[in-house]
Each structure stands twice: as structure tokens, then as C-alpha cells.
Amino acid sequence: MTTRPRKAAPKRPARARSPTAASPAIESIPLPVGSKGHPAIGLGLWGLGRWTAEDEARTKASAARAYERGIRWFDTAEVYGGGRSERVLGDVLRRTSDAGPEAFVVTKVSWEHLRPTQVRAALVGSLGRLGRASVDLYLVHAPDPHVPLAETMGALEQLWKEGKVGAVGVSNFSVEQLEEASRHLAETRIVVNQVRYNLFARDEAEPVRDYCRSHGILLEAYTPLARGLLRGRYLDGRRIPADVRKFAHRLFEPDRLPEILERGRALRDLAVSADVPLASIALHWLRERGAAPVFGASRPEQVDENLAAWQVRPPARVLAAADRIAKGVRA
Ligand SMILES: NC(=O)c1ccc[n+]([C@@H]2O[C@H](COP(=O)([O-])OP(=O)(O)OC[C@H]3O[C@@H](n4cnc5c(N)ncnc54)[C@H](OP(=O)(O)O)[C@@H]3O)[C@@H](O)[C@H]2O)c1
């Protein structure tokens, strides 16, 4: 385990666990740096970029429900809603008396703020919106080819030494970028790479998966439910909204869509025959690959449904069949 050379963030007083914290039990994945384990599943607060007052209220209600139901990992970023996402999360956690020690808060510095002074200023802004003295994990949202990683990683390491971030990670990094970034950390190391990963989107994750595993880097999987498709949405001809299409990274493009929907329906049939929710297959397929899913939810009921799905672990043969179906391997 890597430890800070100087005194880390002050120890927090032990407090009683909230009565809801134990339900449902979410396991914790040990990290090589930082004082907390990383929850195996979390809630992301990007909100699909929808930030009207009504959306904000729904996102807030979803985050509050997630906390109540035992979710502790919350993923946000300075760019989400121009800071609104961090503010919403800060509000929700402030209302919960045990949220300080219990929450596992992850935020990200924008790809537009990767110079050292910008990184520090970005974190100060995020901490202000979150209402916290530190975050558990601070990620580089995506690399900027115009800014040397030496500068960015040096700045992150300094913030880690100061105890303002519990651990350092990255997002959307290739193996080459992970190697390069790691070279510029002297006393700490990268603990997470957050990438798009689901049954229908493997291009970014699979090339980095082995590297991450062999270097003790946890793969956080974003878009684990393929924007609801892997919960059964859109499979029966329901119109796919423009904003869902826009951010879906080729998933819903006309040349792929008919095949994706056909495979989605075959996955749903598999789930029915195995008597498990389709989302259980999607989430546990990731888990089996060593990835920790961070799902989105625009309403509290989706949090409930996704947590219920997490509680059902499909048999390995079902996950293997799902893998083949999603890849288009015919029996
Ligand atoms: N690092 C990065 O570059 C990056 C990029 C993207 C995302 N992320 C992070 O990953 C998080 C999750 O990403 P995502 O939103 O793409 O993931 P996702 O979980 O695949 O999609 C979330 C959407 O799926 C639908 N959904 C979720 N649960 C549902 C349910 N039970 N029933 C029906 N529909 C359901 C909802 O759509 P509706 O809202 O339409 O109902 C929800 O907004 C983000 O919030 C963010 O924190 C990171």
C-alpha cells in the first residue's frame, strides 16, 4: 500500500452507521492507495447533460435515494451541468449526517484544465461546490494531447500529498497514456481508469483491461446499462430520444441499431429463461471482468431497480451465454 509521506487528511471521528447503510450490502474493493475501499457499484451524476430545474430535482432525489439504499460511491465532474452536478451531490450529502466518513466521492478535472495551476483551481472549485475538504478520488476526465501528462500528474500528486485527494485516477486513458501518466508519479500511483464498458461497448475497455489488472488499477465502467437498453428499454420499438442518441457513442447509429436491438432482444430472452433481470446480466458481466459499474439514473425508481438487479447474481453459464449473444456469436 502506498502511503503519503506527510500527514494525510485528518482522521475523522467514528460515527454510528445509519440504519439504512446496510441495505443492500455493497462490497468494497481494496485500493492500493487511500484509506477507503472502493464500492463495487456506484451512481453517476452526469444526468445525461439534462439540467433543467426539474431534471436537477430528479437527479437530487435519485442521489438521495441511492444514499438511503446504501450506495456510497458517487461519481461527478466539474463539467457536469457546469458544476450543478457537484452542487447537487454536495447538497444531498450535507443533509445526511454520516455522509462525511461514509461517502466515496469521485470527481474529475476537465480535459480543458490540465495545466498545474488549472488543476489546483479546478479542485478548489469542485471542493467548494461539494462542500468538502477533500475528495476520495480525483480523476483526469480525459487526456489533452496539448498538455504534457508530466505537468498534470505532478499537480495531482501534490494535491494528494496535501491530503486534498485521497487517491489519483484517470478516465478514458489508453495503455500508452496510462504508462506515460504513471511515469510522472513518484510517490503515489494511478488507482482507477474510468472507461465506457458494457456488453455492447468494449472497444475502449478491453484493450486496457489486462494492463489495469496487472498494475492494480481498478476499471470503473461507465454507461454499464447502455443508456437503459440493457434494462430492456427501446427493445420494442420505443423511440430513442435525440439526447440519448447524441451521447451514445455509435450504439444507436442507424448502421448498427437493428443488429444491436436484435441482440438486445436475445439477451432479454436469455434473462427470462434464466429468471434473472436483464440488468443483473449487464452489471454482473462487468463485475465478472473485474470492472466496477457506475450507472446513471434520472429518477429514484431506477436506482431501486438497478440495486435490486445488483442483488441477483446470474450463474456463470448465463453470463457466458450473454457474452456470446452480445458479440453476435451464433449458437
Ligand atoms: N468519464 C467519462 O467520460 C464518462 C462518460 C459518461 C458517463 N460517465 C459517468 O458514468 C455515469 C453513468 O453513465 P450513463 O448515464 O451513460 O450510464 P447508464 O447507466 O448506461 O445509463 C443511464 C441511463 O439509463 C437509463 N436507465 C438507468 N436505469 C434504468 C432503469 N432501471 N430503467 C430504465 N432506464 C434506466 C436512464 O435513462 P433516462 O434518463 O433516459 O431515463 C439513465 O439516465 C454518468 O452519470 C457519469 O457519472 C463518465
Low-confidence spans: pLDDT under 50, at least 5 residues? 6-23
DSSP helix count?
12
Overall average pLDDT: 91
Report on the biggest sheet.
Answer: 8 strands, parallel, barrel
Using the coordinates above, name the CATH class of the domain at 29-227 and 289-308: Alpha Beta
The multimeric state of the shown protein is single chain
Q: What does this 3D model show about the protein?
A:
This protein is an alpha/beta fold and 331 residues long. It has a domain of 219 residues: Alpha-Beta Barrel (TIM Barrel), CATH 3.20.20. The strands form two sheets. An eight-stranded parallel β-barrel has the order 3-4-5-6-7-8-9-10, surrounded by five helices. A two-stranded antiparallel ribbon has the order 1-2. Helix 1 runs parallel beside helix 11. It is globular, with a radius of gyration of 19 Å. The N and C termini lie far apart (45 Å). The relative contact order is 0.13. The structure holds NADP nicotinamide-adenine-dinucleotide phosphate (NAP). The site of NADP nicotinamide-adenine-dinucleotide phosphate has 27 residues, from strand 10 and helix 11.
